[in-house]
Design a protein that fits this description.
There is one protein chain. The protein is mainly β and 187 residues long. 15% of the residues lie in helices and 55% in strands. Strands 1, 2, 3, 4, 5, 6, 7 and 8 form an 8-stranded mixed β-sheet that branches. The radius of gyration is 19 Å and the shape is elongated. The two termini are 35 Å apart. The N terminus is likely disordered.
């Protein structure tokens, strides 16, 4: 089974669960809890922005969390994504393009909140794998003496914008490596 099929299978399972959990959560007595919904969980999937021969074109996806303090409009969060290209030069892989993993922090603010609708925007700052290399193994391990490969990282920059209605959230996540549609829920 290819990694693209695995990712699609995971997203096909997780996306409906996130959406239905958001709707189920929205059925709670929202009038008493509306201002208490300060956390947002989301998953996203989209399209890769590169098309060069040495670039990975697997479907990018992400999982993230944002939190707003009760006494502030400041939003902080984190995001882990599979996006962009990492060149893998471990055993038998001579500069093979693979999907990279990115680790990102989110910092932003609540743009609008009228009790029923809410809009948030955040700057995405992080690091993305760019290259993995190690001395060749003579025994078939990924690296000599089964050591971990040396991995280089590049900066990852972008933005996350979400629109929420009660507990259900949709949005857009854009970086230099991918553009993704987000779905999630507030709690």
């Amino acid at each position: 089974m290819s990694s693209n099929m695995k990712i699609s299978g995971i997203l096909c399972l997780c996306l409906p669960l996130a959406i239905s959990a958001g709707f189920a959560h929205a059925q709670d007595d929202y009038g008493q809890r509306g201002s208490a919904l300060r956390n947002t969980f989301y998953i996203g999937a989209g399209r890769a922005d590169g098309d060069a021969p040495l670039e990975n074109d697997d479907t990018p996806f992400s999982i993230g969390f944002m939190h707003q303090r009760a006494d502030s409009k400041l939003i902080l969060g984190f995001d882990i994504g599979r996006e962009g290209t990492m060149l893998d030069s471990t055993w038998g892989m001579n500069d093979r393009p693979k999907q990279a993993t990115s680790y990102n922090f989110l910092i932003g603010g609540n743009v609008m909140d009228n009790g029923r609708f809410r809009a948030d925007a955040a700057l995405l700052l992080g690091a993305r794998e760019s290259f993995a290399d190690c001395p060749d193994s003579y025994l078939g391990y990924q690296c000599y003496a089964d050591a971990e490969p040396d991995t280089d990282y590049k900066g990852n920059f972008g933005a996350v914008v979400t629109l929420s209605m009660q507990s259900f959230t949709i949005g857009l996540r854009a970086t230099g490596e991918s553009t993704q549609i987000l779905a999630g829920f507030r709690f």
